[in-house]
Amino acid sequence: MRVVPTIKLFDCLIVPIQIELNDSTVEKIQNQILNEIEKLGINTLIIDVSTIDVIDSYISYMLLETANMVKMMGCDTFICGIQPQVALTLAQMGIDLKGINFAQDLEGAFKLIKRMRGNSYEGKGIFDRD
Amino acid sequence: MKEKESLIEIDPKDYDIVVKIKDEKDIVVARQMVKDFAKRLNFSLGDVTKLSTAVSELARNIYRYAGEGFIFVREINDKGSAILEIVAYDNGPGIKDLNLAMQSGYSTTKGSFGLGLSGVKRLMDEFYINSKVDKGTVVIVKKRRRNY
Amino acid sequence: MKEYLLTKFNEILSELEKVSGVKEGWEDFLIVLAKYEEGVKESELQKSIQNLFEIIPFEKVVDGIEYLEKIVKNFPAGYVYKQICCVQDQYLKEKNNYLTELKNVLSELATPTIRIWKDVVLLPLIGTLDSERAQSMSEKLLEFISETRAKIAIIDVTGVPIIDTVVGGYLIEMFNAVKLMGCDVILTGIKPNIAHTLVKIGIDFNMVIVKRDLESGLKYAISEIEEK
Fold first, then answer.
1. Residue A120 contacts C where some CB pair is shorter than 8 Å
2. Which residue of A18, A96, C158, C160 has the smallest Cβ count within 10 Å?
3. Tens of pLDDT, residues A18-59
4. Which residue has the higher pLDDT, B102 or C208?
């Protein structure tokens, strides 16, 4: 059941967050993402938060939780588009989003993904080893 | 403000904004109102973000732990500089061990980074909390407008 | 009072010169004062007082006023002192405005954000870091990173004289915020004595890449960028 619009690019799933995140919507989004990862053969999740102007400890935790869930399915997570003021506020609150990769925009995310995969977009996730 | 048998005495008439927190969407309402209020008072973008984030934390705590409560907001004028004061009030279960709760990363429920109170304290200029088990919790934070 | 002032004008003037050391300014003042009973504008009196302050030191002006208070009947002492307060307040306000302006200029000068290479920005920190400066510098750096889509930020602390737990905390917050924007941080310019102190007080900057100086930091940044 699609709660948010998502875009598949190569084996990456791009999820722009444009709705208000609360207990019920987060649950639905997480399930949608996990199902799409399975169905579409996704290896990297990219969450775009560029329209979010406030990220508190709850949202932070939800993002971390989501990253941990997709990791269980062999996916790594990128969060892109954290606004400057939001970034500063998060840092000042002392919130640590361990295990998540960050990029300023989609282009930056893909460059980083490509680099991490040894210069190929397709196929391997970064957790796969030869 | 005096503390008698009740946690604190608050007169809504003293405040510019009063938001009742009952549904999850009230958190968004409180956040938006504080954001607009702070902007109108010419707080810097950084401070507007901090205030919005703080009220989001406090309102969510009310929603999650007490079920319902209030957010009071007002502008205080202190020696020519503007201060924005936010009061988060509920008659919920209260916090048993305040010191423990104020530590970063502490949480009684699994699904969170804890009460986020230590984060709120770091964002604000002044932070006051009082909580009595089975009586409720009141948090008062203040931020002074910087004149850059 | 007017008559008295006008008849004894020169006498009073030479006494004032003895008391305050100077004759100029008092002439003007006395003339304005003479108009008092007929009605004189506050601004006019304040102007003549301002004039006095520009010529004579504060204490001497007060000496002169005290002298006038003694010998002039019906001298409107309260009114005159009130005007002096207004003038002083005006000075204070101007001084504060000037100070704020200076602060702003200093802040601009001390926090230049420089685009030093493609996708690389440089922030040479200069001066002590207090809470306000840390906040405004962090904001400025983050906005700049956003504008330039920078991938690496070199933060040089050669010009920061003291790094204690508080300043270390501000820096760590800055580093973490930069990283949340997908930008790597290279820290340079830690002097030997600061390196010593930092470890002793238990601060570590393990979340960033540390290079000895700007040269090595820049070299590293460029090699990383060319690779990306």
1. no
2. A18
3. 988 888 899 999 999 999 999 999 999 999 999 999 999 999
4. C208
Burial A40-79 (b: 16+ CB within 10 A, else e): eebbbbbbbbbebbbbbbbbbbbbbebbebbeeeebbbbb
Distance in angstroms (rounded) separating the CA atoms of residues C191 and A42: 47
Residues 16-45 of B with CB under 8 A from C: 45
Neighbours of chain B (3+ CB pairs under 8 A): A, C
Does the predicted model carry a pTM greater than 0.90? no
Nearest to B112 among A53, A58, A86 (CB): A58
> Looking at the complex, does the CB of residue B46 fall below 8 Å from at least one CB of chain C?
yes
> A8 in helix, strand or coil?
strand
Contacts of B111 in chain A (CB under 8 A): 61, 65
Nearest CB neighbour to B46, from listed C104, C107, C135: C135
In chain A, which residues have their Cβ closer than 8 Å to the Cβ of C173?
88, 91-92
What are B141's strand-pairing partners? Answer: B86, B127
DSSP string, A88-101: HHHHHHT---TT-E
Beta bridge partners of B63: none
DSSP 8-class letter at B114: T
Q: Are B146 and C104 inside 8 Å of each other by CB?
A: no
Residue B133 vs residue B7, higher pLDDT: B133
pLDDT digits (tens, 9 = 90+) for C171-190: 999 999 999 999 999 999 99
Q: How many residues does chain B have?
A: 148
Contacts of C140 in chain B (CB under 8 A): none
Min Cα–Cα distance to chain A from B105, Å: 9
Confidence of residue A120 (pLDDT cuts 50, 70, 90): low
* Model ipTM value: 0.90
Percent of all residues in chain A with a pLDDT value above 90, rounded to a whole number? 78
In the sheet where B81-90 sits, what is the strand order? B17-21, B69-78, B81-90, B136-144, B126-132
Q: Which residues pair with C210 in a beta bridge?
A: C187
Chain-centroid distance of CA B21 in Å reads: 12
For residue A130, what pLDDT is reported? 41
Look up residue B112 and give its amino acid: S
What are the extents of the domains in chain A? 1-72+87-101
Quick check: B147 contacting C, CB < 8 Å? yes
Instruction: Please name the residue ranges forming H helices in B10-82.
Output: 24-40, 45-61
Backbone angles phi, psi at A64, to 5 degrees: -65, -40
- Which top CATH class is A1-72+87-101? alpha beta
- Classify residue B60 by burial, with Cβ atoms within 10 Å: 0-12, 13-18, 19+: buried
Q: What is the pLDDT of residue B110?
A: 54
